Please model this.
Amino acid sequence: MCVVVESVSESTPVTSKWLALATSSLGALLGAFMFTSINVALPSLSKTFETEFNVVQWVVLAYLLASGTLLPIVGRWADIVGKKQLFILGYALFTVGSLLCGLAPGMGWLIAFRTLQGLGSAFLTALGLAIITDVFPSEERGRAIGINGSVLSAGIVIGPTLGGFLIDALTWRWIFFSAVPTGLVGMFLAYRFIAASRPGGGQRLDLAGSGLLFLALLSLSFALTLGQDAGFGSSLILTLFLSSVLLTTVFLGHELAVSDPVIELKLFRNPRLSVGLGIGLPTFIAISGTILLMPFYLENVLGYSPRNVGLLMSIAPISLIGAAPLAGAAADHFGERPIALIGLGILLTGYFAIGTLSESTTALGYLFRFLPIGLGMGIFQTPNSSAIMGSVPRERSGVAGGLLAMTRTLGSSAGIAVLGALWVARVNARAGAVVGTDATPAIQVAGLQDLFLAVQIMIGLAFLVALWDTFRPRRTALAMDGVRNLPQE
Model:
């Protein structure tokens, strides 16, 4: 069933495109499962290797750094050489990395093998949506992306639960071993059911531009990661941020001067791409920071056990699972921007709701406050992703997928780092001393309310931009109709 095509979605057989969706979604499931399940293994890793937490956390950070810094480069490379072979390579790297992680004899080896696993994740993440975009026609793209998003969210839900079960029943190594057979199945499916493409000849990967972009993203990622411990005002972190800005500036100048850039900057003239990425970033920042801080609230303030905390926090991804495919189908029928705007409005409502969390909030009150956040993310994210992927020519879908994945990854890193630091800063400011998580429940809640005010402003600005963008194309289209209907001289 492996055929060579020019990546024309309309010519893809019905069975083949759904099998391609299943193959892509399996990669999303693997990545989400591995990202969330490993968190529950950190205490076991610390005991096994007799290592402090500041070292153990690099099991997570190495994976994020390896995947996040390569996403747009992988996307561009795939547009040049074809997505199928690189997607198979991604499965292979992820599978081999998983096996080696499970066999790791020491913490240093484990961190190195997690880096390899992260490289594989970069290929799977950057190319998954691009493959879906290539095989599905525009009128079905939203539903397909919604299904992919639901599968990814399912991985987020089952990751901690299944990971905890594997640790209790076996050892932490089986979290990694469990990914090996799934990765092998993914490799087979990718080889069998993803159609090969024949990109236009004469293109080459801009190595200099790729290197500059990699270093810029690496500096930014290190700044966000290390800033949590070193402090964002430290000379090291400020130097890293400055290096990222300078490298990005040099990269942009280089891209304007070369014939085959890594990222074609003129693509950003299309507001579906630039606005879509711009309004998506704050939602990823907000949700990742919220997920980071809610366990502290649920355990330290409301007194729930870790098991009940996990159950309560599952409301957002579970509601996202249900909302994403429905939002995708609605976007195919009514248009992407109106549905994304509705989702962003629901998300904003949810953040206003959780801004009222208190020391006496009940479990039911917590669930009702968080339900619109999951629904809003599902309703917004699917059509917004579909709009981004549909904003570029098919021969640039890899770049679009890489940019979208990069926005998600950097947004998540920034949310964890910046919002986490902001919460600690507001708690200390309200306490008048450096107390952090040892502060009284009342002060911790007050710090959360300050934090959510900042999030509300951030999401509110994104909503206003989306509102402007939703109605702007309509006026532009009417103006263009007027130009076309002018009498000819």
User: Anything to note?
Assistant: DSSP finds 19 helices and two strands in the chain. The radius of gyration is 22 Å. Confidence is low (pLDDT under 50) at residues 1-13, 475-489.
